[in-house]
Design goal:
Strand order of the largest sheet of chain A: 1-2-3-4-5
Radius of gyration of chain B: 13 Å
Structural class of chain B: alpha/beta
Structural class of chain A: alpha/beta
Radius of gyration of chain A: 32 Å
Strand content of chain A: 5-15%
Strand order of the largest sheet of chain B: 1-2-3-4-5-6
Order of helices and strands of chain B: EEEHEHEHEH
Largest interface: A-B, 20 and 22 residues
Strand content of chain B: 15-25%
Number of helices of chain A: 10
CATH architecture of chain B: 2-Layer Sandwich
Distance between the termini of chain B: 33 Å
CATH class of chain B: Alpha Beta
Largest sheet of chain B: 6 strands, mixed
CATH topology of the largest domain in chain A: Globin-like
Oligomer: heterodimer
CATH superfamily of chain B: STAS domain
Order of helices and strands of chain A: HHHHHHEEHEHEHEH
Number of strands of chain A: 5
Helix content of chain A: 55-70%
Helix content of chain B: 25-40%
Amino acid sequence: MTTKKALSEKVKALFALKVEGIASQLEAPGVAMFCGSNRLMDIDEVSDISHELESLVASLLDSKDPTDISSAEMLALKAFFHNLSQKVLMRGGHVEDVVRYTQTVQFALIEALEKSSGVAFGQSRSVLLYFTGIFNELIMAAFGAYLDEREQTLQAQQAELRETSTPITEIWDGVLTLPIIGTLDSSRTMLVMEALLNRISKDHARAVVMDLTGVKSIDSQVSHHLMQMVRAVQLMGADAIVTGIHPEIARALVSLNIDFNTITTRANMADGLKEAFRRMGVTVGHI
Amino acid sequence: MIAAGQMSIFGLHLTQIGSGDFLLDPSRSLNVRDMDRLIEEVTAHLMQVRAVRLYYDLSDLGLIDPLYYSWLDALARAAHIVNVEMICIRMQPTAAFALARFIEGPPAFKTALEIQDWQN
């Protein structure tokens, strides 16, 4: 977005400035934040990022409209802070390290520009306001990387939880058990169905005992997913035996008008297994 | 030369695999849009050879769409009318997954992993 506004003399001087040779003066904040006890970077790396920052700031101030926060130069600067944040987080650092670095490097930059030009930018309210606006955007970019990282971690944890909460076990030759715990939503049903059908094909399973003891409530969507899963098992040519249906779930299934006539049900997993063994001609008894 | 228990029509190959048992092997050239003619020819042959069971091999089919399902459903119903039980075998996980998502009730055909699973 480009905004046309009257610029103060000092801001005009800032935009007319040719920025060069200030990278070494931008290193101090990086050394303080990333080269301390946390050892997130070495001195050479801080020197590299300081040179890159100098070049990006020079491009921004030299751009057609340095106040345009959606310009290519500004986007490049935001990408730099986003990547820096990602790098620090990946190395075990905190988002606070990047935010503090961004704040301190802002003051170091103003100081370095003052020294190289001889203009007292730090005394100008409009210059300070300009840099505050720019660096607020950069802090947002650093936070963006942090939020992306958190989101990815959460998704990975959820995927792991989904996988571990539906373990498919071959309890006997050709007999699979699938205890379902928690809620069956669309994405989980698809994952479980895919894994289950592949196991039926791979293990040549002839019976699947699906235990619902861990399912405390059911609605029309969940029951629909359950029916889909049972039907897919049957289409593969295996028997589906549903066990552990709580009385309240049985009542809910009746009120939802779900037809269980084509589905074999048993009170608990033990009875379900007995039924699966019976169908396979296996007898299990006391010695 | 085709043996007495065998029949080939465009896209389908029928082979006798036991007393009253027949295996129907569809190929990629099968045009299920022509299902009326196909059903007539298959059922006529099933009656002629006194078939009891018809095994439909789905091993080459990665996906079953509503059109293909309507072909399977119509063939199973027609076979039932001439007293032949149709069993779909070797349905792929991807096909079962897709099919389970759009069918509303149990299909007109039976299913089994393999022929011997059904015979046992």
